[in-house]
Amino acid sequence: MLLEFKDLRVTYRGSRGRLPAVRGVDLAVDAGETLGIAGESGCGKSTLAMAVLRLLPKSAEVSGEILLDGEDLLQMGWGRLRAVRWTGASIVFQGAMHSLNAVQRIGRQIAEPILVHEAKTTPAAAARRAEALLERVGLPASRARSYPHELSGGQRQRVMIAMALACDPDLVIADEATTALDVMVQAQVLQLIAELVTERGVGLMMISHDLSVLSAVCDRAAVMYAGRIVEQGPAGEVFANARHPYSAALSAAFPVIGDPAARMSPGGLAGDPPDPVRLPEGCSFRPRCAVAVERCGAESPELLAVPVRGSAGVADAARVSACFVAQEGMPVVL
Ligand SMILES: Nc1ncnc2c1ncn2[C@@H]1O[C@H](COP(=O)(O)OP(=O)(O)OP(=O)(O)O)[C@@H](O)[C@H]1O
Q: What is the pLDDT of residues 180-194, one digit of tens each?
C-alpha cells in the first residue's frame, strides 16, 4: 500500500478549547490509484491532507499513523521528512496559483525543487525538465521565461501541477486544486490530472467539496462528515447510489459536473454541519438527517460493509457506510 492512515486523529488547541478536526480516520491509497475525499467546508479534509506532509500548525495534536510506503510520516525526523516532501509526496492546494513567487520566472520555480532534491542534476538539465513539464501540462515551453502575472489563473494552476510532478513523487495530494477555476477550465485541468495519474502511475488523493468532481477523476471516493469517514466505495457508485444520507444529499447538491444551472439548486442539503466543539449525541449527521431512527440519537454508527441495491440484503465488502439505516439495507433517501 502506498499511503495508509491508521486511526488518525487531529485536535486543535485554541481559545475555544479542544477542537477535534479529524476523529479516527482509516484510509488507504494504492500506487496508481485515485482516492477522492468529499465533504463540506470544515469537515476536516484539509487537516487530513496537511497532516500527510506534516504541514499542520503547532496547535494541532496528532495521533495515529500515516504510512507512506510503510514508513510512518508522523515519526520521521525533519531531515528525512524534507527528502520525502516533493520526491515521495507533493501537494497542490486550493489557490496554490497565488503562492507562486511573483518576481521569479516560471521555469526557475519549477526547476527549484529538482535542484534541491537531486544533487546530481545541473541547472541546465533542471531547466530542460521544467520546459518538458510545462509542455506536459499543456503550456508552451516558452512560458518558462514568463512571470506569474503574465499567466491566467488556469495556466498558473497548471504550473502548480507541473511543480508537484517535478521530482516524480509516488503520491500527489490535490486539495480543491480546481475549485478556483471556471467550470470549463476546471474540466480541462481535471482531465489533465487524470491523464498524468495513469501515465506516471502515481497515487492521487484528491480532495473536493464536490462529489461530481471526484467521480470524474477518482476510482474510489470517501465521504467525510464532522471529522470522520461516513461512506466509502467506488466513486461512481457513491455518487450515483449513495449508501449514507449525507453522501446522497451531497450528490444532490452537485448533480452534474460542468452544468452551472444544476449547481444553483443545492437540494437535499439543508442546515449546517455541527460545531466540532459541541458534537451532537449519537450520529453527528442526525440533526440534518431525514431518515434517522431512534438509535441514531443514542449511538455513533461504525463504518461497516452495507448491502447495495440488487444485492438481496447481502453486504458488499467494497461499500462501507457509517449509517444504521444503510446497514439494515433500508433506503437512505426519502
Ligand atoms: N489552525 C487551526 N486552528 C484551529 N482550528 C482549525 C485550524 N484549521 C482548521 N481548523 C478547524 O478544524 C476543522 C476542520 O477544518 P479543515 O480546514 O480541515 O476542513 P475542510 O473540510 O478542509 O474545510 P475547507 O474546505 O473549508 O478548508 C474546522 O472546524 C476548522 O475550523
A: 777 777 778 888 888
Q: Which of 41, 173, 211, 228 for a ligand 1 pocket mutation test, highest count of atoms within 8 Å of Cβ?
A: 41
pLDDT per position as a tens digit, 195-239: 888 888 899 999 988 887 888 889 999 999 999 999 999 999 998
Listed range (12-26, 50-64, 66-80, 208-222) with the worst mean pLDDT: 208-222
CA max distance for the chain:
67
Q: What is the distance between the alpha carbons of residues 173 and 84, in angstroms, rounded to a whole number? A: 13
- Rg value, the chain, Cα: 21
Which atom of ligand 1 is nearest the CA belonging to 175?
A: 22
Find how far residue 267's CA is from the centre of its chain: 23
Q: Which of 31, 33, 20, 29 is nearest to 52 (CA)?
A: 29
CATH topology of domain 3-88+167-267+276-327: Rossmann fold (3.40.50)
* Ligand 1 in reach of 59 Cβ (< 6 A): yes
273 Cβ inside 6 Å of ligand 1: no
Q: Is the minimum distance from the CB of 284 to ligand 1 under 6 angstroms?
A: no
| Of the listed ranges 15-29, 259-273, 300-314, the one predicted with least confidence | 259-273
- pLDDT bin (cut points 50, 70, 90) of residue 257 is low
Amino acid at residue number 269: L
Amino acid identity at 233: G
Q: Give the predicted TM-score (pTM) of the model.
A: 0.90
State whether the beta carbon of 44 lies less than 6 angstroms from ligand 1: yes
Cβ–ligand 1 distance for 43 under 6 Å, the answer: yes
| Closest ligand 1 atom to Cα of 57 | 1
Ligand 1 geometric centre to CA of 21 (Å): 7
Of these ranges, 162-176, 245-259, 310-324, the one predicted with the greatest mean pLDDT is: 162-176
Report the C-alpha gap between 284 and 112 in whole angstroms: 44
